Every structure is written in structure tokens, then in C-alpha cells.
Prior knowledge:
In chain A, the strands form two sheets. Chain A has a six-stranded mixed sheet, with helices on both faces. In chain A, strands 2-1-4-5 form a four-stranded antiparallel sheet, covered by helices on one side. Chain A is globular and about 45 Å long. Chain A has helices at residues 45-53, 75-85, 101-111, 116-129, 145-157, 175-190, 202-208, 224-229, and strands at residues 6-13, 22-29, 34-38, 60-65, 68-69, 86-89, 163-167, 194-198, 211-216, 219-223. The mean pLDDT of chain A is 90. Chain A is an alpha/beta fold. Chain A has a domain at 6-92 and 162-225: P-loop containing nucleotide triphosphate hydrolases (Rossmann fold), CATH 3.40.50. In chain A, 38% of the residues lie in helices and 23% in strands. By secondary structure, chain B is of the alpha+beta class. Chain B has four domains: 1-53 and 247-382, no CATH class; 59-208, no CATH class; 383-452 and 649-792, no CATH class; 456-644, Barwin-like endoglucanases (Beta Barrel). In chain B, helix 10 (295-336) packs antiparallel against helix 11 (345-372) and helix 14 runs parallel beside helix 22. The model of chain B is unreliable at 381-385 and 463-483 (pLDDT under 50). Chain B has 26 helices and 20 strands. Chain B is elongated, with a radius of gyration of 34 Å. At the A-B interface, helix 2 and helix 3 of A face helix 13, helix 14, helix 21, helix 22 and helix 26 of B. The structure holds adenosine-5'-diphosphate and magnesium ion. Magnesium ion binds at residues 45-46 of chain A.
Amino acid sequence: MPEPLIEMREVSRRYDEGPPALHEVSLRVAPGESVAVLGPSGSGKSTLLNLLAGLDRPTAGTVTVDGVRVDQLGEAASARYRRARIGLVFQFFNLLDDLTVADNVMLPAQLAGMARGTAQRRAAELLGALGVDRHAGAYPGRLSGGERQRVAVARALMNRPALLLADEPTGALDTAAGADVRRLLAELHADGQTIILVTHDLVLAETCATRTVRLLDGRIADDTAAELVR
Amino acid sequence: MSALSRVVRSGVGRRRVPTVVIGLVVMIAVTSAVLGASLMVASRDPFDRAFGQQRGAHLSAQFDAGAVTPAQLAASARADGVAASAGPFPTTQVTLREQRGRRLPPMAVVGRAAPDGAVDRPELTAGRWASAPGEIVLAVDPGRQGPPVPLGATWTLPDLPGTPTVTLVGKARSVSGTADAWVTPAQVAAWTTAGGPRGYQMLYRFRAAGTTAQVEAGRAAVAGAVPAGALTGAVSWLTTRRDATERTVLLVPFLIAFGVLGVVMAVFIVGNVIAGAISAATRRIGILKALGFTPAQVVRAYLGQALVPAGVGVAAGLGLGTVLTKPILNQTDRVYGTADSGVALGVHLVVAAGALLVVTVTAWAAAARAGRLRSVDALAVGRTPRPGRGRWAARWTARLPLPRPLTLGLAHPFARPLRSASVVAAIAFGAAAVTFAVGLSVSLNRIQEVEDVADVRVMPRFEGSREGPGGGPPPGGTPVGEEPPSLDGPAVVAALTAQPGTGDYVGLAQTEVTVPGVTGALDAVGVTGTNAGRYYRMVSGSWLTGPGQIVVATPFLTATGTRVGDTVTLTGRGVEIAVRIVGEAFNVDGDGMQVVTDLATLHAAEPDLAPATYFVTVRPGTDREAYATGLGEALRPAGADATTVSHEPDEMLLIIGTLTGLLSLMLVVVAGLGVLNVVVLETRERVHDLGVHKALGMTPRQMTAMVVASVVVTGLAGGAAGTAIGVAVQRAVLDAMAGGAGFALPASVTDAYRPVDLLLFGLGGLVIAVGGALLPAGWAARTRTAVALRTE
Ligand SMILES: Nc1ncnc2c1ncn2[C@@H]1O[C@H](COP(=O)(O)OP(=O)(O)O)[C@@H](O)[C@H]1O
Ligand SMILES: [Mg+2]
């Protein structure tokens, strides 16, 4: 296995009440891999993504992404880490309603200090590639679910992240739109994008992922890569 | 615990910021209300109250000791209309010298065994009454408060043989102003035997003394009861009262202005906070109603949520108000000469009831609206994303060449125009308060400044050997029918010219003239000197450029129906002098009826008229004390003496200054709290968006910058509006203060602001806004992203 992009070692995340959301999870992901994380509701999938994105900190264990010890980052450093290395796609899109589609897509680059003009060009390019360029000046509220998720993906790709994290990206979409987003993610993977994909959608896991990890009560119950090694 | 009270309890606990803000705002409003109302109560006819408490003298009469016997004076108590009397008390005039060598102005000293009797009971404010020779009690001058002289201080009497020493044993305040100092009768006798001027003082109360005519009738009756010519001077209580009320009249428009500003602001902020809390809870209200709460129950629940912290705020405010009011009332007591001011229970009750009423009504209005919302709508309100207002602003600011977090924040206020307007208003109140406060104190100090132009005063020296009829002028004003002694003008000017350090000086000669259209005689002041105009402030027209011109104050113009440029005829000693009014000055002397002219003008009627007083302004860097001492020595051969003029600020100005500072600080804090509350509300509502921003890589610092930037527009708008309001209020209050007395103020007094000041006050709004936003900005920066994003 080449140098892993993600290295999680015995990571646990405990909340004040209840059983741990994650319990001693270890995971290595190589660059270019596309991993589908499956598991029932409450099994710790989103917690895992949050830890990778630096939005949350483990109570034990280490998380290394692209050479960065994510579990040790402070608030500002983790923001810069996300900006530079992570693209996030959510179930409910999380687009900002008061900004146009183009402004939404440009935002991560602008937060990183990119000039408006440069950001505009890159956003136009991405929106074109994802087939939503005619909505650039519209507000997200006007778009269909599938279009919104495409915009969200464009925004996630804005800073050319090393790692794309998607939490149930098709969870809020109808069948047709879901298929659309599925295709998009598959293309991205084909282009070499490393993706961690949390989903209930077995078809999505099937089409987009080269590997599936199944979580159960905060533990890895099943990992296809491990089977391969075995 | 009922379901309703549980809702209230959990509401108060959960919405901590609105709860704390309501409590604090109510507390501050109540504090300032207690302060203002107590001062209003204390300012109600303070002179009359003090006069009643001390059984003040309607007439303080001065008699020639050589022309009347004590027995004859005692008998004058049975004169027509006299209700009560005190005296005769022996009087004299002394000049005290400090250990450092400085001579005090001559003092009228009265010999009294005790501060009691049927008329004029001076109130001891420190120490005790004089009981032995060598002990002296000083009168506390209500108008001015020099550096406090400690009890036990000693002075010498340089003009008496053997330069005897006196020790300060007490301080007392006579509302009637019957003496500059008191000693034992035996002491007066000792000093007059040694050569001091001798006289007697009698103090009368009349059965009727409400009008000048009644007091004059009483004076005539007293004069008739003693040998002709024995009565050398008398001061009416009406004169003293007029001087006293002129000072207190300043405070009232000022208090009203602040009171109105404070109450409006409190209503406004409390209303806003409650409305904000309720709008944030609209979804919760929907759920409550869906669970079967009636609209009335909802209203009661939210009313309770406002009244609990308001009640705590009222209690705290009453306490704080009482504590803060105490020292200020002590000050006003000193100024007014009263002793009875306190925070009245009535004030407490009215303020508490008023505050709770205001909170109830405001909360009711806001809650009733929420209570009437249909459940479906209320539930929908909570879920629907904000309407897309203000997107034009977001598009526009996005183009600004500024970092993105700033341009994002700048657009925020436009998304909620109504709420932003309320923030602008809150900030405007704060900025208006500061602008007004600073402007007012600048103006009042400028009024004071003109009195401080003079450093040293030259007056005739009262030689110990001089056998005067009454021993110089009695305190409390120039007495009726006595000419002030005048100075040897050329000799004084020669001494002034020779004395190093002399800057400008003015000599003032006083006489009386009549003017057509005004009954009775008016004061006329003949000025002479190097730059007399320096000692007056012009409202319009120009200063005198030669004889035949006069400068008058607004009341004169009003009374005579004249204008600057008109010619009037003055009549003095039967001689008519035609003069032209060249200027209008801000001159409160003689109730604004004084005529100021070149001394040469008056020489046409009174060739011998000479200045009784010179005021000198020393050159910068000159020691006033040393200058006065030196000049005093140089003037000794000319029979004149020099003393420094007190530059102590007027105590009323100090009170107004303290109050302005305190009240504007409170208004600024309240404005800041208003901003804080709104920004907290916004942050709560935007918590999800904030989470998205963080997920996209916004650092805490960028987030703080964004939230702070979100109040920049409102802060600037509020600052600009507030500055304009503050300037308008300052003008209105000054006009009310001066206009009440019939005066117009010079532009140099009313124009208190320089452009740079206005700019600073405008930016002050920004400071308030940023101050109020910093705390919630910090909270926003620390939002847990993972949690924020879960609230989908
Ligand atoms: N902020 C939180 N506080 C307390 N418990 C939490 C929090 N976030 C997640 N959990 C708990 O952690 C467990 C895993 O949650 P999550 O990772 O969201 O599950 P999934 O995404 O697989 O549905 C759940 O039991 C959830 O209730
Ligand atoms: Mg989840």
C-alpha cells in the first residue's frame, strides 16, 4: 500500500452521555481510493466524517490526513486545514440562501484569500463542468435538489481538496437526482479524487466506491479492503 | 408547578442573554429615574425651603453705631409690619491675612453669641459656633466652593494693632447671607475698640414680604423707628432669592432632557429585547399552541418571562439609584442651602410602578402578537428560511475590494431592515447622549470661562483706622442707597502699568441711569482699560469703539423694544446722553438690564465718576497669588488692595458635569446592551449558516470580523443620526436654560462642537456597536460546527 492519505489509529469519540459514538476505530485510506461508509443510523458515520474534517476532536487516538495531525489542530488551524485539503458535501446541501450560486461556490477560495476575479473564473469553470453554469447568478432556493447538490459539490471542489467528504449526498434527493449525483461522484473518482462517502444508499456505494467500511455501534464491523488483504 | 410556570422557568433559564439584558436595562433605567426624580424633588423651590427652615430674614439691615443705640434698635422690632426680629448684633469689617501672606477680600463680620433666635438661624455645616475671643465661624458661600479650609486654620488681622490671630472653629450657612463670618459679640467689641469700623445688624421678618413693595414698606417702617440716617443699608430677601433661583433654574431643563431621553430609550430597548426574544421563540410558541396552550396562556408565559428579570432589575435599580443619588443630593444641598433632600419613598414607588408598567405594556404588545399567530403559521415561521430581503446589498458588498468575511458581514443588516433600524435607533440614543453631554458641558464651561478671564481684582482698601458708618458693604449685594467707594483711577493704572505680569485690565465704574420705556433706574457700568471687550461675550453687534456707544444684554433690548443699531437716551443726574446700541452681550448682571458703556460717556452726567473695581488678567505664566500680593503692596499708597479672583468651578456646573457623565454613561451602556441583544439574536438565528462558514474553512478570527462588520453599517448610521440629535438637543436645552431667563446666548457658547468632534461622536456610534457585538462575535467564533450543522 502506498503512503496513506488518511491514517486513523484507535480513534474513540465519547459524548458525555451514552455509549461512545466511535470506539477504537483504525482506518487507512490510500490516495485515489473511494470509500463508502455504511451502517445503521446512530452508528457513528457522521462522527467519523467530522473527525476527518477537523470539525470535531477525538477523545482518544490520532487522526492524520495528508500528513496533518488533524486531532491536534486548534480552531483556526483546523479552519485553514479544511480550506486547503477538505471538500465537504452534506445531505441537505448547506448552501447559503442569501448568496448566489456563484458566490456560494467562490466562498471557500475567497476565505483562503483568493481575489474575486480569479475565484470567479474558477467557479465558472467548475459550474460549467458540473452542468449548472446557467444558474450561476441564481439563488439556491430556486434550484432543484439535484442541482443544489451539484452546486454543493462544485463548492467542495473549489480549493482542489485532497479529500472529498460526503455525508449522505443522495439522502435528500429523489431517484433521478440521486442517480445524477451518483454519476458525478463516480466521474470524480475516475479522475482520481479521494472520496469518503457516508451513505445508506447501497447503489451509491456500489457505483462510486472501490471499498466499503461498515460501522456498527461505533466499531468497524466490516471493511472490504481488510478482506482483500486477508 | 403548573405547566405555565414551567414554561416560564425554562424560558428564563434558556434565553439567558435577553433575560440578562432586560434585567440590566431595567436596572439602569430605574437607577437614572431615581436619580432624576430625586433631583427634581430637591430642585423644587429649594431657596424657599431653606429660607423657611432657617427662618430667613426678609430684611438684613445695617445701622450706624454712632447714630443709634442698641435699645432703640431693639425697639424697632415693634415697627409696623415686623413679625419677628433678631439683633442688634455688633458688626465690623476685617481683612484676614493667610499665613502665606495672601490677603482675603474684606469681610463683614457679625458678633453673635449663638446661631439661634427668631430670625436667621445659620446652619452649622462643620465644627461649632464661636464661643471665645479669637474664634471665628466662616459663612459657606452657596455659589462658590473654594478649596475647603480646614477647621483650626488661622489668620491674622494685619490692619489691627498687634495683628491679632483668629482660629476657624466652625462653618455655617445662612440662606439669608447675613454675614461673611461670625465671632462672639465681645470679639467685635474688642476689634472696634482697636479701631475697626462699628455698626449694628438687625434682622427682620415681616408679616407680608412677598413683593418688593411690601419689603420696601417694611424697610421704611424700620427706618422710621430709628433716628434719621441711622439705617445705612438693607438687603431684601427677594434679591438673595433671585440670585439663588437663577442658579437652580439651570438644572431643570437639563434634567428633563435627560429624563425624556432615558425613558424613551428604556421603553425602546426593553420592547426590542422582548420582541426579539419572542420572535426567536415563535416556533416554540407554535409548538406550545399545538400542544393546547391558549393564546392568553402564551401571552402570560412570555409576560412572566419579561417580568421576572424586570422585577430583579427594578429592585437592583432602586438600590443603586439610592446609593448614587446620596452624594449628588449632598452637593445640591450645598448649592441650594437646603438640608432636607433625600430619596423619597414616593420616588421609589412611582419609579418602580412606572418601570413595571412600561415592561408589562411593552411585553404585552409583543407577546399578544405572537399569541395571536395561528399555530400553523408559527410553526412555519420557525422553519422557513429568512425571506430573501437585502440580497441586493449582499451582491453589492460582494464587489467591495475587502476581505470576504467583511463584505459578508457588511450585508447582514440589510437582510432584516426593521431589526437593523431598531439597532440604529439604540445606537443613535447612545451617541446622542454623549454628544449632548459633551456639548452641554462645553457650553456651560464657556459661560463660566468669561468669568475666569479676570485673575485679580483691585478694590478700595478698608483701612483699619477708617471710621465708617456701617463698616463697608454688607454681604449679599450692594446695599440700597449706598454708593460704593471708588478708586483713584490714574494711581491704579500707574501701578498696573508698572507691575510686571499685567496683561489686560478693565476698570468698572457703576452708577444708575434711566431709559425711556423702563420704570426705575438701571445699572450703568462705565468701562475703562486696555481691552475691556475681553471681559464680555458678544451675542451680536460689536464691542464699544468709543464714547456715545452702549452694549446691552437681550432683556434690555426686549424691555425697551430696541435693536442693535438703535439710538436711545440715557438720563443720569438729570443729564440726557444720546447713545447708540452697538452690540448685544451675554451679560447676566443686573438681570440683563445693565448698560455697559465707555466711562467717558457717563462723565457727561457725572464728571467725577471713577471705577470702584479693576479686573486684571495676568500674562500667561504669571503666578496670580504673587502678582496679587505684589500689586496689593504697590497699591497701598493709593488706598487700594488686590486679591485673586476665584477660578473654582461653580458647584452647579460640577453637579451638571457629574450628572451628564453618569447619565450618558448609562445611556451608552444601555445602547450597547441593545446591540448585544440583537447580535446575540442574529447569531442564534444564523447559527446554521455560521456552521456552514466554518465547515468551508472560516477561521475564528474571520468569523469575529464578519460579525463585527455586521454592525458597522448600523453603527455608523446610528452614530450619524445620534450626533445630529445630540446637537439639536444641546441647542434646545441651552435655549431653554437661557431663554427661561430672557437671554440669548452668544454663538461662541452654543457652538460647542468642532467638525472633528462631530466626526468623533459619529464614530462613537461605531464604538458602541462594536462594543455590543464583540461578545456575541466571540461566541459565534466558538460555535461548535458539528453541533450547528446537526440543527438541520
Ligand atoms: N453532539 C452530540 N452530543 C451527544 N451525542 C451525540 C452528538 N453527536 C452525535 N451523538 C451521538 O453519537 C452517536 C453517533 O452519531 P452519528 O455519528 O451522527 O451517527 P450516524 O451519522 O451514523 O447516524 C449517536 O448515538 C448520536 O446520538
Ligand atoms: Mg449521520
